[in-house]
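Running low. Invent one:
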Amino acid sequence: MENERSLHQFIAHGALDMVEAIMWNLNANYLKVVDRYGDWFVSAFLASNGDRFLLLHDTKSDESIKQFFTDAHD
């Protein structure tokens, strides 16, 4: 269990580099899936103040993930 938690943190932190690269090329808050590791996906959302929200998930459901990020941001 502890190894899995550490792996999840590693995946999310690794995706931050991808967020940095993508965020300058898009004019959007929701970046969709920015990285993938095995069966895990990382989606990202950028707040207007520069904060970055990451979500590690195992299924693709863009609309519900976008709604989650929007609700969390509000």
Observations:
- The two ends are 32 Å apart (CA to CA).
- The longest helix spans residues 2-23.
